[in-house]
Structures are given as structure tokens and as C-alpha cells.
Write a structure and sequence with these properties.
- The protein is of the alpha+beta class and about 190 residues long.
- The two termini are about 40 Å apart.
- The chain has 5 helices and 11 strands, in the order E-E-E-E-H-E-E-H-E-E-E-E-E-H-H-H.
- It has 2 domains: about 5-140, no CATH class; about 145-190, no CATH class.
- A 4-stranded mixed β-sheet has the order 3-4-10-9.
Length: about 190
């Protein structure tokens, strides 16, 4: 099991792998002021910890990707029953605001340059480097999850798809044709 360190940010305690604490420079010389370096995986973990601590009943999903010259973090959060949040919902706004605070910068389309954000600071003054280039916070469950499957089945029975209203049995067959897992379908059915 990996060793963890803790830091406090905005009054909340977060855990990240101990490798995130940088105590030496690139030439392995001790740093006068060690700092915390949050990469894409750690950023996704910190956001999940934030949601689970502040809103323990909300389902949250986090993933991260690396691509040429960058990386990204995707956060999906929905209401307890699987319904989507409105963009102006105070809970979603709070989560989205926290996500924005951890962004490593932003892309400026006018100059076609990525502008790096300033470092942050933990509550005790330790510098935090945010290295997730892009963070997207989505107010709905990801495709294939139980919450999205619930939405899909309800919408199919309500006739919101091009083929019109269908029975629950037909909706389940359609969902399976989209490679939705049996476990997601079973959990969705308990909420319909």
C-alpha cells in the first residue's frame, strides 16, 4: 500500500500519495520550500474526496486522461436518485467552483496559447502546483452508469427517442444493445 500525505485546503483535509510532496529539485538537491505537486490522477482523487466529504450521498465519478502535450480530468456528479443537476443549482455550482480552482490554467483561443495558472497554497502555506491542464465538471452521470441507464430507460418509455415510446422490456433490450451492463440495468430498475 502506498504511503499517503495529508494537506488542508479551504478547511478540508485531503490525502494524496506521498510522491506528491516534492522535497528535491530536478538535480536531487533539497528544496528550501517543499511543495505539493498534483497531477491529473491526484486532482481527480482530490475532487472525489471533496464531493464525498461535503456531499456524502451524491454519486460521483472521476477519470483522467493523458494526450499529446497535456492531460485532462473529467468529473461527473448527479443527484442521489440519478437525476441531472441544473447548471445553476448551488450544490453543482459549489462542486464546479472547486474543480475550477484546481485547473492548471486555461487555453486562450485568441492567442492560441495555454496560459498557466498561478500556484495555490494549502491552509498552512505550502505551495500547491496544479498540473491538470483541463478539468470538466459535468452535472450528470457518465454513459453506462446506473444513473444514466435510469435516464435512458425512462426516456425510451416516454418516447424521447426516434423510434417512439416502447415498453420497459424493449427498453432493456435496447440498453443491452448499447453494451450497458446488467448490474447498471438492475440498479436503474430499482429507481424507476
Amino acid at each position: 500500500m502506498k504511503k499517503k500525505i495529508e494537506f488542508v485546503l479551504n478547511g478540508m483535509t485531503f490525502q494524496v500519495p506521498s510522491e506528491c510532496l516534492r522535497t528535491t529539485d530536478y538535480w536531487n538537491k533539497p528544496l528550501e520550500n517543499p511543495y505539493i505537486n498534483l497531477g491529473r490522477k491526484e486532482t481527480a482523487s482530490v475532487i472525489k474526496q471533496f464531493v464525498k466529504s461535503k456531499y456524502p450521498t451524491l454519486p460521483v465519478w472521476a477519470s483522467s486522461q493523458t494526450f499529446a502535450n497535456g492531460n485532462s480530468v473529467d468529473i461527473n456528479v448527479c443527484k442521489e436518485n440519478g437525476d441531472e443537476f441544473d447548471y445553476n443549482d448551488p450544490i453543482y455550482s459549489d462542486i464546479s467552483s472547486f474543480c475550477s480552482m484546481l485547473k492548471g490554467g486555461r487555453y486562450d483561443g485568441m492567442t492560441e496559447c495555454y496560459e498557466y495558472a498561478e500556484s495555490g497554497k494549502s491552509d498552512n502555506g505550502t505551495r500547491i502546483e496544479f498540473n491538470a491542464k483541463y478539468i470538466s465538471c459535468n452535472p450528470k452521470a457518465p454513459f453506462g452508469s446506473w444513473a444514466d441507464t435510469k435516464r435512458m430507460l425512462v426516456d425510451m418509455m416516454a418516447g424521447k427517442y426516434v423510434w417512439g415510446a416502447i415498453s420497459l422490456e424493449e427498453a432493456i433490450k435496447k440498453a443491452k444493445s448499447y453494451k450497458i451492463s446488467d448490474s447498471s440495468i438492475e440498479k436503474a430498475l430499482t429507481l424507476i
